[in-house]
């Protein structure tokens, strides 16, 4: 029959065309929802490291690998500038004058970048102090006394100035051991900025004594002399780890509130401008930062969204914690260095969306304070500048942030509780409630100022920290870099104890990477080359699977038809 043999071919061609059409209809949607994440690396702040590590662990469950090395803010800025990491994290921007050098410690890099706030928090003062074998959990200090402790002007815990802050405690004649950072640190920068703004005379005298030029301002490298009883450690884990070790009794350090809260240790209640001693809780930080000045008008990337905190230090609200601030991620906004690989921008954009939105809902439980709505909105705009990111319209509408409200006010700050009168300077008997990770009460033990009122008979009472081993705490060994026996000193003299070392110094937490294998996940980043390749693979697969069976059946029918016609 003329043209007969072409029938099966037409059927096979039709089947293949049908498969292609089906693939065209189905595969684009599948490909668009299965974009592959690739590993992204960052380095920097130990202040915000606990939040970043938790967020990275959260997104890893969805196939995203974020490798973050908590090496300190200075190193994070340097690595980002050199292109060795995809993002940096820092509490301070590039280009700030550093009194340690007499110039800016670093200049904004040639690499194109943007600052994006990621979390708020309070720089706390974690301490290890006992009275009669019972851990003190309700210590209070004025800002001036903090300044004097960290400049060596106050050397013993029973100094009259500290006694005045703590009228209900009979403080021991124990040497104070100030523990400072040995590495370039954003935490140090924020602390020394506060010292220079609030107590310039005390800070300038200390800097001059340490051979630094005056007036002395912000520095990322804390000046100190070991001979004066100071101890220096690298990274937040190591300064907090030193304080919480049993040999660390008498020690005090400055560190983000998340660390003592995780370690089960108390923090100082700091005197604010309203005359109340307050802890750096999420609520008190949120209140304080309502007075922060954020640069939102000058769009120069070197300053846009940076913070000015002078009014935070002096916030007159009774609830405000003075040493409150923001931490920033430094993101790339051009296809250079690692961002030449499009999927890196896509992955970093997704992570940026996550930490600004879903991540903020977890900030309080991690020892931080969530960002207010105006900074989340500004941050989302910065995310959208990352090359090859996948924009998500109306993203902020789905954010479960505890600061958000219908009228734009900060709900967390508005609902923050006011401090009790027992925490007012000059008020009734000092509050006994604990702070930070040690909420246990510390009963009053100052019986009319008697030097013998250490109340050793309190063991067995309601305070679960009682006993000679109270300073160890239930979480004393937590953390891979805690170094519980590193760099021990005699708390009475400040002299090093033989055998002490600092295995964590230098490298900091650089090895604490989150491991994971990138997989394809839901995404809406639009059509890309990988999607086209997936489409072609699908077309080929459909053709190979459907075409041959159809062709075989067609040939069989043709054969039967020929046999009928020939019979």
TrEMBL record:
A GO term from the CC aspect: ATP-binding cassette (ABC) transporter complex
Where is there biased composition of kind Polar residues? Answer: 400-414
Which sequence ranges are marked TM in the entry?
533-552
Name any Gene Ontology BP term: phosphate ion transmembrane transport
Q: Which InterPro entries match?
A: ABC_phos-bd_PstS, PBP_domain, Phosphate-bind_PstS
Entries under Gene3D superfamilies matching the protein: Periplasmic binding protein-like II (3.40.190.10)
Q: Where is the composition biased (Gly residues)?
A: 449-461
Give all residue intervals belonging to the PBP domain: 30-356
Instruction: Name the residue ranges with Low complexity bias.
Output: 462-500
Listed GO molecular functions?
phosphate ion binding
Where does the record place the region Disordered? 394-505
Q: Name the domain of life this protein comes from.
A: Bacteria
Q: Any idea which UniProt keywords this protein has? A: Membrane, Phosphate transport, Transmembrane, Transmembrane helix, Transport
The residue range of the signal peptide is none
Family membership: Belongs to the PstS family.
User: What name is this protein filed under?
Assistant: Phosphate ABC transporter, phosphate-binding protein
Give the species this sequence originates from.
Answer: Micromonospora narathiwatensis
Top-level taxonomy? Bacteria, Bacillati, Actinomycetota, Actinomycetes, Micromonosporales
